[in-house]
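In the previous chapter we treated chains in isolation. Here, by contrast, the input contains three separate entities that must be folded as one system, with a combined length of 358 residues.
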Amino acid sequence: MGRAPCCDKANVKKGPWSPEEDAKLKEFIEKHGTGGNWIALPQKAGLRRCGKSCRLRWLNYLRPNIKHGEFSDEEDRIICTLYASIGSRWSIIASQLPGRTDNDIKNYWNTKLKKKLIGIIPSGQGKFSQPFPGNLQPPQTLHPHQFPLSGLSQLYNSFYSHAATNKSLTGPIEPISAPQSFLYCNNNNYNFPFFTSSQSSNCNYQGNQDQGLVDLQCNYPLRENMLMFGGNENSCSSSDGSCSQISYGGKDHVKQEEMGGFQGFMISNGLDGNHKFMLHCGKINQVDEDDHHHHHGDPLMSSFLDDHDQKANGVVLKNSELEYDLEEVKQLISSGGDSNNFLYNDENKTHEKGMYYF
DNA sequence: AAACCGTACAACCGCAGCCGG
DNA sequence: ACCGGCTGCGGTTGTACGGTT
């Protein structure tokens, strides 16, 4: 039978948008909004365009607060880190970069950043042996920018150390600071790349859209400091550009909620502006900035910490050996390999990966 | 000056998921 | 529960433009 076309293909214009079309679309949306129906919009606006095309044009180009032009080092860093952790989930990445669209970031990654990354890493560095070992290895003390993340994160870290050394980048090397929204995980069946867990868990999302609160019910006590993030401000590629979202769910199911949810989440979890956030793969515990050894009553983590109390800049972690041949990493990047598989193919889910704050 | 090539960006396409009827 | 319409997303393609030969 096949799917009905979203519009009359024969009757719609394709290709680049003219200034007149842009003006028409912009004027119409500013006056009437999208009306929640992109399909009908072009007709109402007097445009011979497909609704999808209108939507894309609006989201990627016409809507207010779109940032064009050079990406900053900070943006580079965020993109690298997030790509290393979640792969090509451009909309999620975009949600962390105010004013940037997923399309923008995707293009930027494909045309520049990827090459920058590949080009800057000398081959033969960091000879590693196996992807995602099941067994945890003795811990190492690491700086926050040297987290035992995934292979790509290693690459990223290498990238930044080299960049810093070569002064090709400026600015401090720091963890991503406080994204304003988060994706709390379900680390049971699915495996959203941020998260896999050795413990069986049953974490149900119970979004309360009326209250805008995210209410998670987990019978496995997820690390309180494990977070996954969505977006905020007007940086996302959501249909109306309102862009205040918190995301939750898994690889096959990522939902987004109003940002009020994150505010509630922040409050209910006692988070404030003093917390910082980092991506994580391995074992980790939250350490308050004023109490680096407080284990927050987490027996699992406490026992772990009894064995391996390691901390770096306020973060306690148990490292896992992540050994890759960087050439392989490069290859994966250049071959457009599935980063999710590459980075997160932890079939036994013996590892925890996530984003944490501290 | 013209042809060629590489790069960057805009736009399209198809799929998957959501949601309302 | 099912179905169809709509939206969002990510991959891919098209095109403009600048640099090089």
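Confidence is low (pLDDT under 50) at residues 121-153, 162-329, 332-358 of chain A. The radius of gyration of chain A is 22 Å. Compare these points with the single-chain example from earlier in the chapter.
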